[in-house]
Design a protein that fits this description.
The structure holds 2 protein chains of 2 kinds.
Chain A: E1 2-3, E2 6-12, H1 18-42, H2 47-60, H3 62-87, H4 95-112, H5 119-148, H6 152-173, H7 208-225, H8 227-237, H9 239-244, H10 249-276, H11 288-298, H12 303-322, H13 332-348, H14 350-354, E3 355-361
Antiparallel strand pairs in A: 1-2, 2-3
Chain B: H1 5-13, H2 18-22, H3 29-34, E1 44-47, H4 57-72, E2 77-79, H5 89-97, E3 102-105, H6 111-120, E4 125-129, E5 138-143, H7 145-159, E6 164-169, H8 174-190, E7 195-200, H9 207-219, E8 224-228, H10 233-241, E9 244-245, E10 265-267, H11 270-281, E11 289-292, E12 299-301, H12 310-324, E13 335-336, E14 342-344, H13 352-356, E15 365-366
Parallel strand pairs in B: 1-2, 1-3, 3-4, 4-5, 5-11, 6-7, 6-8, 7-15, 8-9
Antiparallel strand pairs in B: 10-12, 13-14
Helix pairs in contact in B: 4-11, 5-6, 7-8, 7-12, 9-10
Classes of the chains: A mainly alpha, B alpha/beta.
Chain lengths: ~375, ~375
Amino acid sequence: MIIGNFRIELEPRLTSPKWLYAAVPAGSLVFAFIVGGVFLALTGHSPIGTYSSLISHGYTSTKGITNTLGLATPLICTGLAAAFAFRMNLFNIGEEGQMYLGMIGSAWAGIALAGHLPHVLAVPTVLIVGAAAGALWVLLPAVLRAKLGTSEIVSTLLLNYVALNLVNYFIFGSRGFFRDPTTSFPQGRGVEETARFHSFGTSNTYPTVIIAVLLAVALYWFMKRSNFGYETSVFADSPNTARYAGMNSTKLTLSVLLFSGALAGLAGAMYVVGPAGKVDPGLLQIGLGYAGIVVAALARYNFFAVVLTAILFAGLRVGGASLQISSNPVPIAIAVVLQGSVLLFALGGEIFRRNRLRIRRVQQVSVAS
Amino acid sequence: MKMKHLKGIALAAAAVVGLAACGGSSSSTDTTAAAGGDYSNLKVAVVYIGVPGDAGYTYQHDQGIAELEAELGITVTRLENIPEGAESAATFDQLAAEGYNLIFGTSFGYMDPMLEVSAKYPNVCFEHATGYKTSTNMGTYFGAAEEARYLSGIAAGAASKTGKLGYVAAFPIPEVVRGLNAFTLGARSVNPKATVQVAWTSTWFDPAKEKEAAQSLLQAGADVLGMHQDSTATGEAAMEAGGKWVGYNSDTKAGDFPDTWLTAPIWDWGPYYIKAAKSFAAGTCDVSQFYGNMADGTVKLGTFGSSVTAETQDLIAEKAAAIIDGSFAPFTGPIKDNTGKEVIAAGVVAPLGDLLGMQYLVEGVIGEIPKS
């Protein structure tokens, strides 16, 4: 691009200095808030006031941060699910559907099994069954990918719609196991009380948030220390090298995708043992599976960063919706624009980490075409 | 139930003008006093599943909220696009924590979250539309749309040349089934051989999907459509195919469908919102299960399109009068379901409890609902 006497170019960096990994996302965030601020000012809202309200409703007030952590809990799991698979260049974008299956599976366990189990085993069982159901939902795409090389992008995505209709069928389209038998209104059947966590105090945060964070730590450790972690990173860099070294690519592909599905299923299970306590079609409306992919991408597939990004993202949602609680309410559409610009700039900022901006004086002035 | 804020009202009577602003009131104290009450202690919020721009369900609620604001001289905080389900508890919690003491939620899926939050805030009054659970500080509100559905069915039955009607419907749940049945009974009251084919969309608001369902019904030979959805997409499909249609929720877009619009069952929530707010301001959270109807004005029939003949309009007016004075109810036996089984015996008027749990399709409906 030529502007006046200067030629502006992007030059790929061979290596990115460490500080850029922090500076680029931080800079992107600042830039997004500046752009959003112009937008706010143009629509008659004080940028500073709006941002301080957003931060207080989303992060710094007790109510705000506990609401945010509640929403972030399943989002951390779907984010980890996406990060785990994407690291190995396996693009599981079916977290949404796997999460629904996790909700269905854990609700089944919470209704059918929990009553027969001692209290201490009820919640873990429900979580494990939910994770297993999520893994099961990705089994077919995983086998197709491992054995036939079929694109997992398409197959996992399409299964999201099947899962969505399955939930709708269980709650609205049929009167079977998952539906509350005590009323003709379409509602999920509640799980046993023993299969649920109590929230912390009167907040909307559940102990599952601790499990989600511990999972990120465990994943980090596992990928660093285990054979499996080593093999998957070799495979991600060069499948041929991995094969040459005698690694079993079929097994690796299968296990990565199944584990990713299990993590997404766990998100749905945490929704059941936490706030929902049943198959709740409300989960279909908040897109936590797709949001998990965005979170993973923003976190550059780093498990610790997934935790932070999920909290950031959830806070933007909680705080954004709360901006409507004001004497000069910020319409939800503008709150969504704010969220979108943060995401867009954060992802777009990557270009400046990978490339160097070069501005050179042009010798001969030519007309820009 | 007496609320703590009674004391507050007494205090506010002697309070400085500045307090009115703290109470969320945008009007001067004089106006509210002139209206016969002091509402400065009311802090009202409403939570919408969609946006008022839907020209349907949320739009009509928003009209009602605007009536409430005008009548009481207060400002109501509106939260739009709040998804249903367990995560909505955070929204209601936040509102109550910020001092809102009268909170309306307009979608079924808010029920359990609202109930849960209502237990945490015993001094806050919660009112939930379309649900069935109540508590010491949570009531419900809804209404007999089936009355106007029946009347709109008359318009549809009279307008159909082929006797084949279609109905785009969200979910096979009692509320929707009740409306579909009332529509069918109305249509068959003037066109005894009429049939109504139903297409389920599994969504309340998805214009593309609604339109697709409407088109499939038109292609199957339907020339008049009814619908139970939040958007006007059914009307667009009908207009493109040269068919007629009956709207729902609102008639604000009737003018966009000049030749194809018949009429619509519509909601007027204003009187209810005003009643609930006044009751709470007087110290009582209305925890009843309000079920409005045509007689109290909550349910109405919308404006008629040009293709509804004067004769049909007269017939509808006659039936409407009978519904309002109580001499006629749409679900009066004998009524058979669409498998031929009698569901309401001759001369019997189905009680409200049966209507609220309705799980059969009446004779003339082509379609199925899940069996229990």
